[in-house]
Amino acid sequence: MAKEKLVVIKETGLNNNCPECFNQDLKLTFYQKHTYGSFFHKTTAELSNKLVCNTCHSTIYPVSWTEDIERMFNYYKKTAIPEKKSSKPTLLFYALLLTLIALVAGAVYLFISGAIQF
Question: Is 63 part of any domain?
């Protein structure tokens, strides 16, 4: 089973008013999803975000955003540049690949030397 991890790609403070407590201490964070499996580590193109008030510690969902918050969100969304989508093999993948190559090479050697006949 592959593990999923959200990696922070951009974190910024906003000076907009919180819709809950009306203080000007918000934190906007953008995340990129990474999956870690046995054979491959994948960086996906999937982005997510979270807006939290640092004073009342409440998560502010897009339903309650004001126009100012939405405007700042759109600006910072353009500046959050994610890593490119990629897939990298792990050490286990390379070990299995080398083992398979060694087994095939050994079988071919035994067949050519005459130790195995069909």
Answer: yes
Q: How far apart are CA 67 and CA 22, in angstroms?
A: 15
Q: State the pLDDT confidence band at 1, using cuts at 50, 70 and 90.
A: low
Other Cβ atoms within 10 Å of 30 Cβ, number = 22
Q: Which two tokens stand for residue 96?
A: 């299995």
Please give the angle made by the CA atoms of 70, 74 and 78, to the nearest 5 degrees.
Answer: 165
**In sequence order, which residues have a C-beta less than 8 Å from that of residue 56 and are 6 or more positions away?**
18, 20, 21, 23
pLDDT digits (tens, 9 = 90+) for 88-101: 999 999 999 999 99
Q: Please give the residue range of the domain that contains residue 45.
A: 3-89
